[in-house]
Amino acid sequence: MEKYIINGGKPLVGEVTISGAKNAAVAIIPATILCDEPCRIENVPNISDVNLIARILQNLGAKVKRVDKHTLDIDPRPIRTYEATDDAVRGMRASYYLLGALIGRFHNAKVALPGGCNFGLRPIDQHLKGFEAMGADCNLVNGAIIEATSDKRVCGTEIHLDTVSVGTTMNLMLAAVKAQGQTVISNAAKEPHIVDLANFLNTMGANIRGAGTDVIKIRGVDYLHGTTYSIIPDQIEAGTYMAAVAATRGKLLVKNVTPKHLDSITAKLEEIGVSVEEYDEAVVIDATNRDLRRCNIMTMPHPGFPTDCQPQFVALLTTVSGTSIVTENVWDNRYQYIRELHNMGARISVNGRVAIVDGDCTLHAAPVKATDLRAGAALIIAGLVASGTTEISSIHYIERGYEEIIEKLCALGADIKKKYFPEDETAVTA
Ligand code: EPU
């Protein structure tokens, strides 16, 4: 059992380089299944979710070689099976992209139900509705495996999503890239990683137009050639460091970002009184000597405020003056971490999708548990602010999505380390 140990109370100061986007990487890596030649993916974040999806591809038969810490060479040609049902597949949410990619390549797929962070119901009905509309017959086998079957190449069609869904939009793009004819996805999600996946596929010869708008048109092609492609910077990792530096009243140069992708995050920081300066591929956040004030936040699909930054901003809002109202509009149960923040002295009440956050809290250290990836990031922020020594357990969630978070924070002056605890000692401290 490993934990993060944080001695809080120090402002973050310096510069941090943002890694490649997790939620782009976990789609682009399975997308290589569709390619007819080897490809090279650069700016791949070195995180456990990426290592897992790369291993899943290897288990399918692909040749995956790590050229350096952030570059993968993938040769998908040796893949001969459309069955991905092992435990690794169950270990992550994004394994649902195997469905779209395998349907695209083999017009059949057999994939274990996805796992991942738990914050309430995470249905995939829209994915299945889309595959069915394209001609694949989808069934749940033994309550644990999705089987999609078609005796021929699936066909392009018009699909209107009932709800704006990132995963569905990308998964249908994967199934459609080599489909017969044109697929039109309307009410599509517009996140930067959707554009990134479309750019990757188009670089290989796909014909996708409209990614980044709510109507995406995909005309099927027969062949995708090899490419070298660099993944976009991680908007959410950047937003996490931006929230952390504001919460600790520090000053930070955040490098390797696309400032446009951070607009909704930047706007909230400016609203509470933080200075944000934008450069071509960097932002400077300055919260030194500032009295920060309350704001309201509503999470929305892109370009709205991202749900994946909601917990980190709630942690920040406990440190500003006034009462903030946060409304979570994407997930129905993404406030599980708030009871952990209560243990650290936060005053937050939750009613359904709404959290009312009292500012001016004096956070104190406590043993707390990461309940999911972004929850873990919020607890780190609280620990960086709190007086005393905070211990965070279940850090495997955090390491799914944040590359070298300890090293990056230590370089900014934080006192944070990872410590191994034998199981019996943990039982006493937990
Ligand atoms: N939804 C349905 N039916 C579906 C699919 C989604 O009702 O078939 C609903 C969901 O229940 C949710 C909403 O639609 O209420 C949006 O879900 P979406 O499909 O957009 O989420 P996702 O694709 O499963 C991705 C990210 C999440 C991020 C969401 C929203 C990946 C691997 N995961 O999930 O990232 O919160 O989009 O932006 O890309 C994270 O990185 O911490 C994380 C959880």
Strand order of the largest sheet: 22-23-1-24
The total of beta strands comes to 24
State the CATH architecture of the largest domain: Alpha-beta prism
- Count of folded domains: 2
- Shape designation: globular
What is the CATH C-level name of the largest domain?
Alpha Beta
What Rg do the Cα atoms give? 22 Å
Treating each run of at least 4 consecutive H or I residues as one helix, how many helices? 15
CATH topology of the largest domain: UDP-n-acetylglucosamine1-carboxyvinyl-transferase, Chain
Largest sheet: 4 strands, mixed
Bound molecules: uridine-diphosphate-2(N-acetylglucosaminyl) butyric acid
Describe this protein's structure.
- The protein is an alpha/beta fold.
- The protein has two domains: 206 residues, Alpha-beta prism (UDP-n-acetylglucosamine1-carboxyvinyl-transferase, Chain), CATH 3.65.10; 209 residues, Enolpyruvate transferase domain (UDP-n-acetylglucosamine1-carboxyvinyl-transferase, Chain, Alpha-beta prism), CATH 3.65.10.10.
- The protein is built from 15 helices and 24 strands.
- A four-stranded mixed β-sheet has the order 22-23-1-24.
- A hairpin with a 3-residue loop joins strand 16 and strand 17.
- The chain is globular and about 65 Å long.
- The C terminus is likely disordered.
- Bound molecules: uridine-diphosphate-2(N-acetylglucosaminyl) butyric acid.
- Uridine-diphosphate-2(N-acetylglucosaminyl) butyric acid binds next to helix 1, helix 5, helix 6 and helix 12.
